[in-house]
Amino acid sequence: MTANSDTLIFVYGTLKRGFCRAHNLHDQTFLSTAKTTAEYTMYHCGTYPGLVRNNMDGISIQGELWRVDNRALELLDEVEGVAENLYHRAPIQLIQPQITETVEAYFYQRSVNQMPVVGDNWC
């Protein structure tokens, strides 16, 4: 990755426009609303959601697609607690919009036992 390359990020919770962490994307490029393939489950982790892969009975998750620069990506990794193993950033599959570039999202890394399922949209 070069110093000024961009990354596509799917956000589904507090980073979405109008939510408490949206300011972390204020100078980045919003591309569109987005929807994943039916391979994920979103859990209610208190004041924020946690997304996990669920190939057996997952659903499509609604969110937003953003193009972010490397500086913003480093900030998002910090905000999402990547170094603390709270989340990790990995590729995610979208059905809307149809896109050929790799898209990444933040996946929850802690136990989801006893956490309620949110559904398809954090609102």
UniProtKB/TrEMBL annotation:
It comes from Gimesia algae. Pfam families: GGACT (PF06094). Residues 9-115 form the Gamma-glutamylcyclotransferase AIG2-like domain. GO terms for cellular component: cytosol. SUPFAM superfamilies: Gamma-glutamyl cyclotransferase-like. The active site is at E80 (proton acceptor). Belongs to the gamma-glutamylcyclotransferase family. One of its GO terms (molecular function) is gamma-glutamylaminecyclotransferase activity. This is Gamma-glutamylcyclotransferase family protein. InterPro entries: AIG2-like_dom, GGACT, GGCT-like, GGCT-like_sf.
